[in-house]
Amino acid sequence: MLDRTHNAPDLPPEIARRRTFAIISHPDAGKTTLTEKFLLYGGAIQMAGQVRAKGEARRTRSDFLAMEKDRGISVSASAMSFDYKDYRFNLVDTPGHSDFSEDTYRTLTAVDAAVMVIDGAKGVESQTQKLFEVCRLRDLPILTFCNKMDRESRDTFDIIDEIQENLAIDVTPASWPIGVGRDFLGCYDLIHDRLELMDRADRNKVAESIEINGLDDPKLAEHVPAHLLEKLLEEVEMARELLPPLDQQALRDGTLTPIWFGSAINSFGVKELMDGIGEYGPEPQVQPAEPRQVSPDEKAVTGFVFKVQANMDPKHRDRVAFVRMVSGHFKRGMKLTHVRSKKAMSITNPVLFLASDRELAEEAWAGDIIGIPNHGQLRIGDALTEGESIRISGIPSFAPELLQSARAGDPMKAKHLEKALMQFAEEGAAKVFKPAIGSGFIVGVVGQLQFEVLASRIELEYGLPVRFEPSQFTSARWITGEKIALDKLEASNKQHIAHDHDGDPVFLTRLQWDIDRVERDYPDLSLTATKEMM
Ligand code: G4P
């Protein structure tokens, strides 16, 4: 068994007890249900159903969220903090739909681990795969929860094989299911040698836990019918032979994932998973930055913005910058340096996102996520420090894959539309390019659905009807290089040139051929598909 104490004895205890993670899954696998049970056991809500109920109430406020409901996707991401046992969990929600993958990518830069939820009957689905690939880019540690074991599900070895093969990650069972579908009895906890029995009569009741002295303990037969026990013993023996043991380093490197089996709706297996996050999920990690990385145990406070959400409350036109604290002990009222503008900012109204509501954050430690209301000064990628000039690295902006022209439904409102579009560009919800010639804007997104969400939000939040029309361009590349070469390119290719919301020049392309031509004719310039946000 692994050492259950914290893995970072040198960190201040308040930091060492923090676990900041996201849940990734394919829609319908049970992310919302699992989140709800997390909050329930974290004492953040009193009864199951509140998260969904709160969601419904929020949704009635705008069609944008109604659209989210219709499509069964979660468009907006948020953060929730709660205590569980000795731990402080910070759960960062990710949009599950692939059309929002850039947003998801940035959200995942703010966490130290991810919980991957899969449906026991469906295995690894397309969105799981995509989100997993994003985690892999950062070698994030992954803990897996195989949900809906109360229903007919696939053979346990099949599920494990599929994860190993499709995701190219080793899997080690933390628990082993006993029986399937209607015969599903519970799990054998392989880490703590316990039998966990599911109670079908009461969905909110935590499983009965029976201490077992190893798999040859005769006590097992008192609770597990002979045919199921025989199968369990056989399977566990095989699993121990064929599958790797739980190696903490491999888990931290993102090359091995422990898997728990359970049923979120029946509250089954959830606590074991939470214990697993506490015991094995890493404490706040070092943050890559320039000119030096930032370590969580540093005294000075450092944080960075990974998400900006505008108009969270339509009654107050506020923007909230979600900040991941990277080091130190932040206290409300602190003056921090906004590195990009080199200006001091007094952080007087930071909020913590407790499940029940937003609350003023009197303090925050490395690992925490706080929200800072602001009027647009804070942008994605911005660093806040106690004076040091640090640039957080690894938060890219991706070239959009779909471009459309945006026009105000009412030509008199073009200026208003510009303002709305710029705000969404700063929020990271879309790329907005102002062409060098002609009027209007070109809006770039990763997935088609984003256009619909944008149109709906612009209409709701700004009262502006907007039309998105096909554009002759299919992609965009940021241009960098010598000014002389840039001017020359701009002068002779005006119809391809535009500027993004930061004023940086981009080259709008129709075909790969356009890019090849520029690269051939302008060897001093480079065209890139990503831009580091700063
Ligand atoms: P998501 O956020 O990943 O999209 O999934 P969500 O939690 O909304 O769950 C999707 C559906 O799966 C829900 O049913 C939910 O009740 C069900 N579900 C979640 N966990 C389990 C489980 O352990 N076992 C079983 N059998 N079902 C589970 P729904 O019918 O879409 O919604 P509802 O009417 O139940 O709210």
Automatic annotation (TrEMBL):
Family, similarity comment: Belongs to the TRAFAC class translation factor GTPase superfamily. Classic translation factor GTPase family. PrfC subfamily.
Cellular component aspect of the GO annotation: cytosol
Lineage top rank: taxon: Bacteria
TM region positions: none
Gene name for this UniProt entry: prfC
Job of this protein: Increases the formation of ribosomal termination complexes and stimulates activities of RF-1 and RF-2. It binds guanine nucleotides and has strong preference for UGA stop codons. It may interact directly with the ribosome. The stimulation of RF-1 and RF-2 is significantly reduced by GTP and GDP, but not by GMP.
GO BP annotation list: regulation of translational termination
Coiled coil region boundaries: none
Name assigned to this protein: Peptide chain release factor 3
Binding site for GTP: 25-32, 93-97, 147-150
